[in-house]
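ESCALATION

Customer reports they have been waiting on this structure for their group meeting. Please prioritize. Original submission:
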Amino acid sequence: AADAATHAAAAAVGFDYALAMRAALLCESTYHSVNPSYDNAADAVRDHLATDASGSDGPTLRLVAEVRSAATDTYAVVARNVTHLFVAFRGSCSTRNVISDLAYDDDAATTAAFAAECNLPTPPGQELLLHRGFVEAYRSLRPQLHLVLEAELEKELEVDLERESVVLAATEGGGEGVDEGG
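Update from on-call: job pushed to the front of the queue and completed.
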């Protein structure tokens, strides 16, 4: 009863408890990549997501891809459910990760270059601060990660276009059948 009241209060202010729990579950699953008892991290992540220990209602997450960089020992997973696409980066778990963590100082040149690469708006008078180590870790995955995300977004667009085509055909046909020609 207390959990239901907490969830209702959170929902009243726009917090999606189920979505937050699924995101937390996904973040936790990234650590399977360093667990020596698993031969295949992707299988471990799939199993972990399938059990959905979040206790939430709604669609579970499905692993789309793992993305790795040997240069920075950075690991991320991309997962989705029916309505959302998720990216989760594994936190620190190696000496190389700690080295990235220690590179926290914001370097103006690195920040400016990264902002330009990503087309980030930098309004005058508002300083953009970035963790330099994470910027470099992200950069090491960025090309692979973007390919995965673009492919998933294209799939979603295809599904939306198919739905729209059927809806338009039904409304244009005046209820006399559905023209599947789009």
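Sent to customer with the following note: Residues 167-182 have pLDDT under 50 and may be disordered.
Escalation resolved.
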